[in-house]
């Protein structure tokens, strides 16, 4: 199942020109406010007819400016989840969900009501009206309703933007399950790097209507050239690790090759694959293995890249067992350490520096 998008459109003062393929899994459209994310999603949904280009889902052409093909939105078999759930207020949760199922072609429905309800944890809510749900619960119901229409593609436009931090953390595991347990490809819009790092299989970075990068999540987030247009504070590499053990002092031990990470307890069984995003600004570098230091995470690697930005900082890529850790340090520190590509070095972070919402599950 792939989604192929190539669209050009002009608003006064804004030129959109974007082309990408979204393979199975979650493709995140990522970029600053006004970069064109929603406009792209609207062209896929059929809510905006672009001036030129093509949109195809699973080989089926939905729009082609050359041949004049234009499938109207209601016929596209695309589920759309907006910032706020937009549930029917006069219907119960069960009826809202049934409304989604009603749209599924008879016999073509791949999503079973019970499975969707279980996966999103909404069984206790079925008889309630939307007014009696929290923001996070409403979003879970909205996602369930979209899934039950058995769409070929699920579009989610900042589905967590209206939620506070606690609600976001509550809903992210459900979205991870959705990614891992359904075959429905998803296009997920966000400008929050932590959300993208948790969920994305593929990342498309947009900037001012143009595509800046497109590739597997760990590659894009680990690319030192990407963070600058997005703001250095958001920079951080994505690591795939494996749970080794849970320790009595409340720490979970994760492996990354021969290296070890110790993080505050993670709720996952030994052997589980866990995604961890480590913010570049939280990584300290040393050229000799530090002794008598409180930071628990000391990963041995090699300098793979050193990139200067406009300010006093540089972004250093450290290769650790085939994966990349990014570290943002000053030029002064780079010079003091004499960092050069190929040099052995140690990437150090505190266990408590890794935020809860930067730890997810991973199946790749
Ligand atoms: N109907 C419209 N008419 C004119 N300009 C528009 C229209 N819709 C969007 N734009 C402009 O297109 C640009 C991209 O908007 P878009 O909503 O796609 O950005 P976005 O990346 O989704 O932003 P945000 O994260 O703030 O939602 C903006 O400059 C916006 O003002």
TrEMBL record:
Cross-referenced InterPro entries: AAA+_ATPase, ABC_transporter-like_ATP-bd, ABC_transporter-like_CS, Mo/tungstate-bd_C_term_dom, ModC_ABC_ATP-bd, Molybdenum_import_ModC, Mop_domain, P-loop_NTPase
PROSITE patterns in alphabetical order: ABC_TRANSPORTER_1, ABC_TRANSPORTER_2, MOP
SUPFAM superfamilies documented for this protein: MOP-like, P-loop containing nucleoside triphosphate hydrolases
SMART domains recorded: AAA (SM00382)
Pfam families assigned: ABC_tran, TOBE
Record keyword Iron-sulfur present: no
One cellular component (GO) term of this entry: membrane
Any one GO molecular-function label of the UniProt entry: ATP binding
Domain ABC transporter: 2-233
Record flagged with keyword Nucleotide-binding: yes
This protein's UniProt keywords: ATP-binding, Cell inner membrane, Cell membrane, Membrane, Molybdenum, Nucleotide-binding, Translocase, Transport
Domain Mop as annotated: residue spans: 292-358
NCBIfam families in the cross-refs: modC_ABC
Listed name of the protein: Molybdenum import ATP-binding protein ModC
Annotated organism of origin: Neptunicoccus cionae
Gene field: modC
């Amino acid at each position: 199942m792939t989604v192929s998008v190539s669209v050009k459109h002009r608003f006064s003062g804004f030129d959109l020109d974007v082309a990408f393929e979204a393979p199975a899994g979650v493709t995140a459209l990522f970029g600053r406010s006004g970069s064109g994310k929603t406009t792209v999603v609207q062209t896929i949904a059929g809510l905006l007819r672009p001036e030129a280009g093509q949109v195809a889902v699973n080989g089926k052409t939905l729009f082609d400016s050359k041949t004049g093909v234009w499938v109207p939105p209601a016929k596209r078999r695309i589920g759309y989840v907006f910032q706020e759930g937009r549930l029917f207020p006069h219907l119960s949760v069960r009826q809202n969900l049934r409304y989604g199922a009603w749209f599924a072609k008879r016999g073509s429905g791949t999503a079973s009501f019970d499975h969707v309800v279980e996966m999103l944890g909404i069984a206790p809510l079925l008889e309630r009206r939307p007014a009696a749900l929290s923001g996070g619960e409403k979003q879970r119901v909205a996602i369930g309703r979209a899934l039950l229409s058995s769409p070929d593609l699920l579009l989610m436009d900042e589905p967590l933007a209206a939620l506070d931090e606690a609600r976001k953390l509550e809903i992210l595991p459900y979205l991870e399950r959705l990614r891992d347990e359904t075959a429905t490809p998803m296009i997920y819009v966000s400008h929050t790097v932590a959300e993208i790092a948790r969920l994305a299989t593929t990342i498309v970075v947009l900037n001012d209507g143009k595509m800046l990068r497109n590739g597997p999540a760990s590659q894009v987030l680990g690319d030192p050239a990407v963070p600058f247009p997005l703001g250095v504070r958001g920079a951080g590499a994505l690591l795939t690790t494996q749970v080794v053990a849970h320790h009595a002092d409340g720490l979970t031990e994760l492996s990354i090759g021969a290296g070890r990470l110790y993080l505050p307890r993670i709720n996952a069984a030994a052997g589980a694959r866990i995604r961890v995003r480590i913010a570049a600004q939280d990584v300290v570098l040393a050229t000799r293995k530090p002794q008598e230091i409180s930071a628990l995470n000391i990963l041995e690697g090699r300098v793979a890249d050193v990139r200067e930005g406009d300010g006093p900082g540089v972004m250093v890529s450290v290769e650790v067992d085939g994966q990349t850790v990014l570290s943002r340090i000053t030029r002064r520190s780079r010079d003091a350490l004499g960092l050069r590509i190929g040099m052995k070095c140690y990437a150090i972070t505190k266990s408590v520096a890794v935020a809860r919402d930067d730890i997810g599950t991973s199946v790749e």
